[in-house]
Amino acid sequence: MASDFPADYAVWHGLSPMTDFFRDGDPGLFLVSGSGNHVTDAAGRRYLDARSSMWNLTLGHSCEPVKEAMRRQLDTLPSGTVMRYEHPPVVAVEYAARLAALMPAPLRHVRFGNTGSQMTESAAMLSRFHRRMTGAPERRYVVAVHNGYHGTGPLATALTGEPILHEWSAPVDDYVRHVTAPTVPEILALVDGIGVDRVTAVMVEPVLGSAIGAVSLPFLESLIAECRARDVHVIVDEVTTGAGRTGTMTVSERLPEAPDMVVLGKGLSAGYFPLAALVVATPIFDALADPPLRLGFPNGSTTDGHPIGMAAGLAVLDVLTADGFLAGVRRTGRHLVELITGSLAGEPGVGPVVGEGMMLGLELVHDDGEPWSVAEVNRFRLTCRDHGLLTSYAPGFLPLMPPLTLSRAECAELVDRLRAALRAHKVER
Fold first, then answer.
1. Cβ atoms 247, 330 nearer than 8 A
2. What GO molecular function terms would the record report (predicted)?
C-alpha cells in the first residue's frame, strides 16, 4: 500500500485491482462535499461533475425538495418493506401509482428494488416465472445484445453482453444468448434459431451499453411488433435513459406500442437513495395475480419499497413533471452540443457529439479515423479530471452525462474545461 494511504484503509472497491488504485490514487482526490453540480475533494479542488456521480445524480447535490422529502419521511416512517406481509408503506403505494401513471399503457404495475442490476435480473426471472405459471415452462431462453450492459450479478452478468465478464465470472446462466449486431433481423434470426417455443424474452437498451449514440425508435418499434407476433416478451432496460436523462421520462413513451416490461433506476431518486423499479404490463400482471398455483413471484429483498427511497422518488417526479422542466433539459442539451461543436471545431482527435438531452458523447478519433481505445479515453478522462472536469469513458467516446440541472453558464464552463484538457492532452501524447 502506498505510504500516503492510511494503514487501515479498508474499502475494497472499483473494477480494477486494488494495487492499481493504491499506486495511482491519492487520498487528496477523495470527495468530501458537493454543491449544485460541483464537487470538492479532500485537497480542496473543485470539479464540474459531468458524469453525475455515475450517471444517477440527475438533479445535482442541492435539490432541496428531495432532501426535505427524505427528512420528513425519516420523521414519519423511517423503514418499511413491500417484500412480505400485508403492510406496504403508504408512501410506496403513492409512489407506485404516480410512477405507473407516467408510463405508457399498459405498463401499470411496479415492483421496486435497489439497483438496476437487481431489476434486470427480476425482469428476466419474471418472464420465466410467467411462462411456468401459464403452462410454457420450456420457454426459458432470454436473448440480449453483444456489448449491451444490464449490470452484474448471478443473472445480470449473463445478460450483460461483455465477454470478459462472462469469462471471469463463469459459470453464467446457460439460457442467455447474445446477438452480435443490434438489429431486428439478427435478433429474430437468433430467436427463430433457438425456437420461438423456447424463448421467453428479448432484453435491449435504447442506447447500447456504455456507448453513447442516438436512440433508434424505429428499431424498438419494429422489435416490439415482431416479438409480439411471436409471443416473446420485450424488456427495455432504461436504467440509464429513463427518469429524464434523454429529455423525456422514458424512451418507451415515444413508441406507438409499449414493451412488456421496462426497467428503471439511477435517476429515479436523483441518486439520493438506492432505488430501481420494474414496470410490468397488465397482461403479465393479470396472469400472475390469481395464478393456478397459489404462489407469488418469489423475488425481492428486505429494502424493496423503502420509505426513504419512495419519498425521494415522489419528490423527483415533482421536479421532472414540473411545467417546462424536461423541455428545458432538451433545450440545454441542444445548446451544449452546439457549444461543443463550435468551440472544438478543428481540434485534433475530436469527432461529432452524439446523443440527446443530457446523455451525450464526444467521439474521439485518430487522424486515420480509428476510434480511441478505452485505455486512451481513460487517460484523457484523467486529463479532464486534472482540469476540473469529471467524466466517464467508453471505447471511442468521452461520455458527457451532467445533471439535468446544468445551467447555460455551466455549459460554457464544461466546454472551457474540456478544451483546456484537449490541448493539454495533445502535449502529453
1. yes
2. pyridoxal phosphate binding; transaminase activity
**C-beta of residue 260 within 8 angstroms of C-beta of residue 235:** yes
Q: Can you name the CATH fold of 18-62+323-424?
A: Aspartate Aminotransferase, domain 1 (3.90.1150)
Handedness of CA 19, 21, 27, 33 (dihedral sign): negative
Give the highest mean pLDDT range of 167-176, 273-282, 294-303.
273-282
The C-alpha atoms of residue 248 and residue 245 are separated, in whole angstroms, by: 7
The whole-number pLDDT of residue 209 equals: 67
> Which regions of the chain carry the CATH code 3.90.1150.10?
18-62+323-424
CATH class of 66-321: alpha beta
